[in-house]
Amino acid sequence: LLRQSKFEPALAAFDAAKQRRLELLSDRHPEYLESLHNFGVALRRLDRVKEADAALQKALSVRLDVLGATHPDTLITRTIIVRQLIDKSAFDAAVTEATSVTSALTATLGERDVRTIQALSDLGTAQFTAGRISEGVETYKRAYRLASETLGKEAPEAMNVAHEYAGLLSKFGRYGEAL
What we know:
Blueprint: H1 7-24, H2 30-45, H3 49-66, H4 72-87, H5 91-109, H6 114-129, H7 133-151, H8 156-171
């Protein structure tokens, strides 16, 4: 539903799953935490920032305690929090968190994992929006290279990286530098 931009139905589905998993499992069970994370993502897509922050921070806090700092699920929640920081114009904090998340994902999953590549793209966005343009350019080039070499230039993930990069270049008036 999220991929279809059906955010209200997605929110209702994630809320129902979250409540059912809480009834059957516990608020520390990984499946409940996945529903809580997804609920937070849906809230974010609906621009319900404070509620999204609360859900994502709770999911992160418990995932850190239950799964640990380097578990992929914990790191994925942190990538969503990076996007929240960018949305809230907390650009320096976003760069710091994105750098940490990208390093942890690289160490845990490898640099060619699609989640690591997306985290690199998020890092590039954070660098661009923080005014660290040259770093952002290099990070996006790296993310695109990894995505296209690993998945192919026609893969949705590679095209998404190229699209995001082109959008940022355009936003900053650097029209001739697209991949």
